[in-house]
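User: I'm preparing a small set of examples for a lab meeting where we compare how different chains pack in three dimensions. I only have the primary sequence for this one, and I'd like the structure in token form so I can line it up with the others. Please keep the answer compact; I'll paste it straight into my notes.
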Amino acid sequence: MPKEIIYDAEAREKFMRGINRVANSVRPTYGSAGPAVMIQHVADGLPPVFTRDGVTVARSISCDDRVEDLGARMLRDVAGAVSRQAGDGTTTAIVLAQAIAQESMIRVAAGYHPLQLKQGMDITLAVVEKHLQDNALTDVSSAWVEKIVAIATKDEPGVGALLAEALAKLGVQGQLTFQLGNARQDVMEIVDGIQYDQGYISPYFITDKNRSEAVLENPYILMYDREIDDLMDLVPILEEVSAEGRSLLIIAEDVVDKALTGLLLNNVRGIFKVAAVKPPGFGDKRAARFKDLALMTGGAAILDDIMSTKLEHVSLEQLGQAQRVVITEESVTIIGSKGDQIAIDKKIKQLQAEAEIVLQRKPGDGSPSGNKSDFEELQERLAILAGKTGVFEVGGTTDVEIKERMVRIENAYMSAKASLEEGVLPGGGVGLFNIMATLDELIVPHPEQQQGVEIVKQALLRPLQILTANVGLNSEEVIARINAAESKHFAVNTQTKQYGDFLEIGVIDAVKIVRLALRNAVSVVGTLITTEVVVMHVPDLSIMAGYSPEWAAATREDPRAP
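Assistant: Understood. Below is the structure token output for the 562-residue chain.
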């Protein structure tokens, strides 16, 4: 296949055009008072997507020029990375990345060496991250949580109290799942649940493409500690589950070959709803985890031994049950499991006693690393058995409104969790702006690396400038008032135009989110400026000659066929 080669300045110029296209589309959504963006649905006839979420806007944008689209994709990847790591802060990451990229391109064009600039930016990033963590306010109260949520949700009434309650009951490690509600009001419920780190075996099990989730309502649960490679072994139990009008979750060592193909085809065609995942735990500890799952869900674990039931002879009585299962690429959440609570409590007491025995072992009673591993395994099993999860049903008047609110509320919850993990700092871009004075004193050994310091320093000002511009405030006037204040806690609420202590006026950012946004922005721009050559495949368009998508769709025929 022929190749197209684009060199240095031309490549970077096209990268920058793609970055600006994405960033300029996302910037209006920045801040609690930011407006929304409407995106045409990919399928004709369906209502448009109405969103204030930066990563949703970024993912919807692509460029005709393939090199420009690489730049746009780098920015989409920044937003996606921050979303995966922290759940919020995607627009902040995009704003910072654009600012760093613009400043970097100016200096590269002026003759500064890209590698030296990158090293200077990396040094500055380490200083900024340490400053953020050292100056964070910890011991976050429920009142702070409500204010953080208010900012992230564009001041949605009542949401802050519900999410603060969820964090109080579930803790930072707890799992809160979000779903479309059936009423105008938001409803939150804490239920028994199980959550562990294993995703779906195939993405074709996904039922919600926007959220990349496979969701099963009122499922039966098959727990089988072996590989499944023949669909015929599953047919008897699939017929029984289908006759009940319910879905099936398969937790197995693996599902491969004809079994996986058959499940996917039937699932896609709507013959029955099914999803397959791997079990928690590894090695010889997996059998115990299987038994825990069986206990929690009220089913039986079919283990790899001669006494176990063969797969084709499994009955409904051996299957577990739950209210709902939510599967992502990285986790499985089983909500409302139907196990016997008395038996579960008994098992919890047994494992607690075993953990106490491990802790009381004297030196020489087993290896220290082995004792630690045994204790951690028991703690993880206890967390699953005693686990609870929350279900937040997002209310609204129309589907468009509910879907838009659900994204904002989920981001708000992740912001609140992040604030509990690493603390908070003044929001509205002020926290980053305050660090600029610290960077005035940062001296690096190489003069070109010093330019990398200046690049990051200037980028730290950009969030404050855009947030104030989005609400019609004069950024220079705002900066002057912040500089005149003696307190580093002085900030501005861009929604109410109120100045004061950031805790009192409710302008709070989570340190973790700001830190990760800056880290990912510096990382992707460092990769971009050190790229000198882009090699692209030249597609062969002759194979599409004579093909009209509209004509083919209307006739269900391909005019190229003989």
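A couple of notes for your slides: The chain has 20 helices and 19 strands. The radius of gyration is 27 Å.

User: Perfect, thanks.
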